[in-house]
From TrEMBL:
Gene3D superfamilies on file: 3.30.450.40, Heat-inducible transcription repressor hrca homolog, domain 3, Winged helix-like DNA-binding domain superfamily/Winged helix DNA-binding domain
Keyword set includes Transcription: yes
Pfam families to which the protein is assigned, alphabetical: HrcA (PF01628)
Residue ranges occupied by any Heat-inducible transcription repressor HrcA C-terminal domain in the UniProt entry: 107-324
The protein, known as: Heat-inducible transcription repressor HrcA
GO molecular function: DNA binding
Key words, A-Z: Repressor, Stress response, Transcription, Transcription regulation
InterPro entries reported in the protein's UniProt record: GAF-like_dom_sf, HrcA, HrcA_C, WH-like_DNA-bd_sf, WH_DNA-bd_sf, WHTH_transcript_rep_HrcA_IDD
């Protein structure tokens, strides 16, 4: 465990982090002495910087006399020095006016939230809704499209909607489909999709099912509707903005960043952690497989529980004091919208 820094060391580390966030360039002792009113000579600042480097909080990227924060330095800054500013009333009003989702489908809402987060932060915006299999069943409806083709509409307890077209072995009229829907809604309400699948498997093997045509058809259709696994849906917007950052100018850095966004697994795992946590979460650096990057995230919910998570991925030197309140307020706004949708 690292020893606590004295006030002078904290102030100089904070100044270096802030200057590096603003410039993306190594910060020298002379610049710190000139820009910040510490009443310290460049030599005194240089001595403190040497101590911070010895503690692993700063490093020298090349022959430059300047220093940049390490992952450890950023982590200390976030844990001990970061001051989150409050959004002004004007900024809150602008955010509220950006998030107008009336009449939009859930998928469109999620994509729009990611786009707005990216536009406000100038980094990549992320929005994730959870695995279909973990959601709690509320309602299923079958709609006849044509001979042997049905549209299945599944609604979760938190209001998420999934649509799927399936084939039926025999043509079924809409009246019969309504009976099937009513039967399933009575039998399956309150179960997760994984539990529903297990129940369907058992009941399809039940001898009584062979003699009850409604039950047989209902189980067969619902099994077809729910058998495919649907993974977490992750919407990513603004990856090109990340490639404009100086940290990702080399081919190797660029390739690593693109692989992170394309595989999605790392981002989904971190957003999964955010979904079960309270408040804003900050993940930084290689300890969470985000070398050179940070993720600021928060969950969103309605009155029935957490629905998903959203966030911003940026370089490790992103302006946390600016991005954290944007992510936090956006999660609150999206939660309010979804709360109204669930009524």
């Amino acid at each position: 465990m690292m020893a606590e820094l004295n006030e002078r060391s904290q102030k100089i580390l904070e100044a270096i982090v802030k200057d590096y966030i603003a410039s993306a360039e190594p910060v020298g002792s002379r610049a710190i002495s000139r820009r910040h009113h510490f009443n310290l000579s460049p030599a005194s600042v240089r001595n403190v910087m040497a101590d911070l480097e010895e503690m692993g909080l700063l490093c020298s990227p090349h022959t430059s006399a300047g220093r940049i924060p390490t992952e450890k330095g950023f982590q200390y800054y976030i844990d001990s020095l970061l001051q989150i500013r409050d959004l002004s009333d004007k900024e809150k009003k602008q955010l509220r006016s950006s998030y107008r989702f009336s009449g939009m489908k859930m998928e469109d809402i999620m994509q729009e939230v990611g786009r707005i987060l990216s536009g406000l932060s100038k980094y990549a915006g992320l929005v994730m809704v959870p695995k279909f299999a973990t959601t709690v069943f509320r309602q299923i409806e079958f709609v006849r499209l044509s001979h042997g083709r049905l549209l299945v509409i599944y609604v979760s307890e938190t209001g998420l909607v999934q649509n799927k077209v399936i084939s039926a072995t025999a043509d079924i009229d809409q009246r019969e489909l309504e009976k099937i829907s009513n039967y399933l809604n009575r039998e399956l309400n309150g179960l997760t999709i994984n539990q529903v699948r297990e129940k369907l498997k058992k009941e399809m093997q039940d001898e009584m099912t062979l003699y009850d045509q409604l039950r047989k058809r209902a189980l067969s259709l619902s099994f077809a509707a729910l058998q495919d696994e649907i993974e977490d849906q992750l919407y990513v917007t603004g990856t090109s903005l990340m490639l404009e950052q100086p940290e990702f100018s080399s081919p190797d850095q660029m390739r690593r960043l693109i692989q992170t966004f394309e595989s999605k697994k790392i981002l989904i795992d971190l957003l999964d952690r955010s979904q079960s946590a309270q408040g804003v979460q900050i993940f930084i650096g290689s300890e969470v497989d985000l070398k050179g990057c940070s993720l600021i995230s928060a969950n969103f919910s309605n009155r029935k529980g957490a629905i998903g998570a959203l966030g911003v991925v940026g370089p490790m030197r992103m302006d946390y004091s600016q991005v954290v309140p944007i992510v936090d307020f956006t999660a609150q706004l999206v939660s309010r919208v979804l709360d109204r949708e669930a009524e």
